[in-house]
Design a protein that fits this description.
Elements lengths: L7 E3 L6 E6 L4 H5 L4 H9 L9 E6 L2 E7 L12 H6 L3 E5 L7 H7 L17 E5 L6 H18 L7 H15 L2 E6 L3 H4 L1 H7 L9 E7 L6 E6 L1 E5 L8 H4 L7 H16 L4 E11 L11 E2 L7 E2 L7 H13 L5 E6 L3 H7 L5 E4 L2 H13 L5 E2 L17 E2 L8 H10 L7 E6 L3 E2 L9 E2 L4 H12 L2
Parallel strand pairs: 1-6, 2-4, 2-5, 5-6, 9-11, 9-14, 10-11, 13-17, 14-18, 15-16
Antiparallel strand pairs: 3-4, 7-8, 8-11, 12-13, 15-18, 19-20
Protein name: Cytosol aminopeptidase
Organism: Erythrobacter longus
Keywords: Aminopeptidase, Hydrolase, Manganese, Protease
Length: about 450
């Protein structure tokens, strides 16, 4: 993971390059205080105060920087990211402003994935000084969680299979004193039959498993976090085309979100009894692969007719959500790279969110909007439950018409969550196809900060 701990430091009056934050409307007034040469320099850089723009202004033997923002008094999560991306190595200080949550974007702009290839022409760290360094520790933790998601998702399937996800669980358990139970291979047939069916065709080194971490006081409210851990998805016997398979290393993105969120929860000492569950599998093709037309048993007791082996994520989540429900949690949140329909509906910048309770959905939207991570709510309409009817089983895993794919997948999961439990489902892309300042191309978290800030508000630390 990119090292960011030393990028935010206490301001003790040490030498630093000044950063002036300028709005487009305030640029003319600011420019009047510049020398002719400085004004000419900004003009040559075409800097006029547009949000996200960056300028470097000569000043004696050095320089100062200017950054365009929408509102210097209300900095957003990514408003300093372009500065952190484009400024040279050095130490910086904001003039007449404190960074607050903009620290998050400053930090994530430093992210690099260099496991397999060294960065070309690397730029050294850009350190930001603040008088409120103690308040920044939470944003540093959030940036580290975001970068963990990126690292896990960016890592190819051969190095991020079920065993690697188990290793991440072991790290979490050791760091936070949590209990970990792992059920793998043929042991899954009894308690997690759908996880077993989806993962049984994989090579021995990628045996399926269910990872279950418990942490916190036993008398605290129970919170369950569930993540889809399909470490590679070939589509199974309903095989994907090559183009559709290319990014399937990211199909464990839900697990990455769940692991990162659990780390935030335990690191902050949230007053909950946490259950973190990830079914980790590879949806492979070999003799034991499950087939279209098969009817699978489930932990809940429902039988599931397989219409499409490429709708496997909801199967493994069904068993995991059933197990989570057995703890009688106050809240379940699951994350899954579940449907292409969600991407068609919302594009790559929003996580599709479905929720049983309006107040929980509203709290997540509010928290996400305040922290640059707004989810978009999709419905769980009763009218579409009939799409999952089967002639020979309790339910099918994929409906045959082209309508409401994300919502119908959510309705499938809803059948495996105990009635009355507050439940939220994130259908997350976990991938950014185009870079933006502070948001690199590749693995990305969606809904993570929204969930974290909602949970802090709800449960306290």
């Amino acid at each position: 993971m990119t090292e960011i701990n030393d990028l935010i430091q206490a301001d003790r009056g040490q030498d630093a390059v000044a950063i002036h934050l300028i709005t487009k409307a305030g640029f003319e007034a600011f420019a009047k205080g510049l020398s002719a040469g400085q004004h000419a320099s900004l003009k040559a850089q075409k800097f006029e105060g547009d949000a996200g723009s960056v300028g470097i202004v000569p000043d004696g033997d050095g320089f100062f920087a200017v950054g365009g923002v929408g509102d210097p008094a209300n900095l957003g999560s990514y408003c300093l990211a372009a500065l952190a991306t484009n400024l040279p190595e050095g130490t910086y200080r904001l003039v007449d402003a404190q960074p607050d949550d903009a620290v998050f974007g400053w930090l994530t702009a430093h992210y690099r994935f260099t496991r397999y290839k060294a960065e070309e022409n690397p730029v050294g760290p850009r350190i930001l000084l603040t008088e409120q360094v103690g308040r920044m520790s939470g944003y540093v933790a959030e940036a580290q969680a975001e970068m963990l998601v990126r690292d896990l998702v960016n890592t190819p399937a051969e190095d991020m299979g079920p065993a690697a996800l188990e290793a991440e669980f072991k790290k979490l358990a050791k760091e936070h004193g949590a209990d970990l139970k792992v059920t793998r291979g043929d042991e899954l047939e009894q308690g997690y039959p759908m996880v077993h069916a989806v993962g049984r065709a994989a090579a021995r080194k990628h045996d399926p498993r269910i990872l279950h971490l418990e942490w916190g006081a036993k008398d605290a409210p129970v919170l369950a976090i569930v993540g889809k851990g399909v470490c590679f998805d070939s589509g199974g016997l309903d095989i994907k085309p090559a183009a559709g398979m290319r990014l399937m290393k990211k199909d464990m993105g839900g697990a990455a979100h769940a692991i990162a969120l659990a780390g935030l929860i335990m690191g902050a000492g949230l007053k909950v009894r946490l259950h973190l569950l990830v079914p980790a599998v590879e949806n492979a093709i070999s003799g034991p692969a499950f087939r279209p037309g098969d009817v699978l048993p489930s932990r809940k007791g429902l039988t599931v007719e397989i219409h499409n082996t490429d709708a496997e994520g909801r199967l493994i989540l069904g068993d995991a959500l059933t197990r989570a429900s057995e703890e009688k949690p106050e809240l379940i949140i699951d994350f899954a790279t579940l449907t292409g329909a969600a991407r068609v509906a919302l594009g790559p910048d929003y996580a599709a969110m479905m929720a049983r309770r309006d107040e929980t959905a509203d709290a997540l939207i509010k928290a996400g909007r305040a922290n640059g991570d707004e989810p978009w709510r999709l419905p769980l309409p009763d009218a579409y439950r009939e799409y999952l009817n089967s002639d020979i089983a309790d339910i099918v895993n994929a409906h045959s018409n082209p309508y409401a794919g994300a919502s119908v997948a959510g309705l499938f999961l809803d059948r495996f969550v105990e009635e009355g439990i507050d439940w939220v489902h994130f259908d997350t892309f976990a991938w950014r196809p185009f870079p933006k300042p502070g948001r690199s191309k590749g693995g990305t978290a969606y809904g993570l900060r929204a969930s974290w800030h909602m949970l802090k508000e709800r449960f306290g630390s």
